[in-house]
Amino acid sequence: MRSLRLLLTALVLSAGTLGQRARRIAIVGGGPAGAASAYFARHELQQHNTPADIHVFERLPRLGGRAHVGTVEYANRTLYFEQGASMFIGKNRHLVDLARSFNLTLCPHPCTLHPADKRPTDDDMVVDAGMLGAYGIWDPLPGPVSGPGRWVVRRHGDQWLRDMLRALWRYGGLGDLRRVRRQTREAVDQFMQSYDQFSRPHDGVYASWDAYLADRPALQQSLYYRAAELYSHGATRISQRFLREVVSLATRVNYMQDVDSISAVGAHISMAAESDEAYSVAGGNHQVFDSMLGHSAEVHLGKEVVAVERNGTGYRLVTTDGVEDGVFDTVIIAAPLPLTKIRLPEGLEDLKSAVKAEYVRMHVTFVIGTLRDDLFPSDTLRLPRLVVTPYGTTLPFNCLSILACLDGTQQCGRPGSLALFKLFSHAPIDLPQVFAHVQWHRRNTWHAYPRLEPRNGNKYGGGEGDESGAFHLPRKSLPPIVLDRMDDAGVFYVNGMETVFSTMESQTVAARHVVRLALFGENFPS
Ligand SMILES: Cc1cc2nc3c(=O)[nH]c(=O)nc-3n(C[C@H](O)[C@H](O)[C@H](O)COP(=O)(O)OP(=O)(O)OC[C@H]3O[C@@H](n4cnc5c(N)ncnc54)[C@H](O)[C@@H]3O)c2cc1C
Ligand SMILES: *[C@@H]1O[C@H](CO)[C@@H](O)[C@H](O)[C@H]1NC(C)=O
Ligand SMILES: *[C@@H]1O[C@H](CO)[C@@H](O)[C@H](O)[C@H]1NC(C)=O
Ligand SMILES: *[C@@H]1O[C@H](CO)[C@@H](O)[C@H](O)[C@H]1NC(C)=O
């Protein structure tokens, strides 16, 4: 009886597409890229009236990958905080539109709200840190925290005019800001062309990231320069001070790198993040990816893929539990290959060096406590929301931000007041060096994102300022998308895109490109 009902259901489900075999797709990884691969594959195939059988394999017992929420109880309230990827900007169309379509709450970053909260409702004690000034550059002179440091720059937030006048004076007008903004806008606009391409049914298919970038010259060129080089020559030259205090601040906060090592693309993306409205999803960004997967795939949690093998006309997956049932037409790897132990089909050993990328090892520390009051000059009445150490400084941290004030509005930002803090650092934080009192803390370490270096390494170091010369050098290819192909089947790789830059949004965009290529090939039917 039961099997008859199943059979009938199957017949009804396949009625519209009778005779067509379901496309079997395996996706490795349940982070932003894996969720988007499943979601967009489901959509594309639906539009072509092709049935799909989509499976997602995730090593961890949870979805979201580097989008991973944490919680802590304080004063009868649950505070939510992002342990990894925390924010996205209003221009990030996939994340913004999808969050809205799933009825999730977009919350100004940083956000400690519960998923059901619709807007910050400050109770008596827990106060949103949004009232504080934007940022300050704090120099921990003279040694690793042995006396009060010095404010190099401080934005007060509540004194907008004073902040602006000071900035105008400090950076000699608005010229540098304009030059940087123009570069940022060009790169971001070219990235955003992807959305228009997706809206055309036959567009947005690239066989490689190199082909993708060839259509986006501002991004492509910026990938072969360090930020410091781009901004030291010709028409894009800006002052060293603006470079180190504004551009490097953004790259330090977003990618843990200074302007003299990060690629110019990394600087553009960091500047975009710092100059647009930033949001998080109340209760955790991972909910966007959970919801994308909930509608589109069968999810297998706690299953680590250890090998992809050719099998007849398709592929079999081997996980830590053994060989998975069935043969897949398409395998999409949506995790950083250099960090996994996945064995690829025979003959693909050379891919190891092609997909190589060094991931930034970083520490994220959360603390409920009070800061040492001897860190800051004694006339510091209120701290800014974000405290960044200067260019080239990594101790005691790269940056420290206040996520929520826990002593009420009056005390919010006062150096000795209780707050929920987040710190980014290259080495584990030595808590007593920074905090007078710690009530609670949590430490995370991540392989956060690839080091965003210019693709050709240091070849342009100490150049003569002849930018055009740089482009005559051979360009090192980006990691491949197509790892293996047999007739209609293939193995595809999303995370090579991360070596250009790494964000949740760009990984969903990369996944959508890869899905189109995997399902329809380069000769996308129009
Ligand atoms: C501290 C930190 C801060 C960040 N801040 C931001 C930010 O503010 N904004 C932003 O947009 N981005 C930010 N990022 C970057 C962002 O997290 C990444 O760009 C994004 O998560 C990449 O998505 P992904 O799906 O490609 O990879 P991941 O998120 O890493 O997901 C890959 C998934 O694959 C799984 N997996 C790996 N190997 C296997 C295997 N063999 N079998 C099965 N499953 C496997 C992993 O467990 C993981 O769940 C930050 C990252 C970190 C660490
Ligand atoms: C938490 O809730 C308990 C029980 O409702 C109450 O007695 C206590 O005062 C609350 N604590 C705070 C800090 O609000
Ligand atoms: C979102 O909310 C609207 C209105 O309340 C509702 O019609 C819709 O079904 C909800 N969508 C989801 C995905 O929950
Ligand atoms: C396909 O995989 C199955 C199960 O591992 C195995 O028995 C079979 O021999 C394989 N076939 C080919 C052609 O590799």
TrEMBL record:
Where does the source fall among the domains of life?
Eukaryota
Q: Which GO terms describe its molecular function?
A: prenylcysteine oxidase activity
All copies of the Prenylcysteine lyase domain together span 161-456
Stored PANTHER family? FARNESYLCYSTEINE LYASE, PRENYLCYSTEINE LYASE DOMAIN-CONTAINING PROTEIN
Identify the taxonomic lineage of the organism of origin.
Answer: Eukaryota, Fungi, Fungi incertae sedis, Zoopagomycota, Kickxellomycotina
* Matching InterPro entries: FAD/NAD-bd_sf, Prenylcys_lyase, Prenylcysteine_Oxase1
Signal peptide residues on this chain, from the entry's feature table: 1-19
A Pfam short name: Prenylcys_lyase
The family annotation for this protein states: Belongs to the prenylcysteine oxidase family.
Using the record for this protein, list the coiled-coil segments as residue ranges, or answer none.
none
What's in the keyword line of the UniProt record? FAD, Flavoprotein, Glycoprotein, Oxidoreductase, Signal
Task: Name the coenzymes or cofactors required.
Answer: FAD
Q: What is this protein called?
A: Prenylcysteine lyase domain-containing protein
Q: Which GO terms describe its biological process?
A: prenylated protein catabolic process; prenylcysteine catabolic process
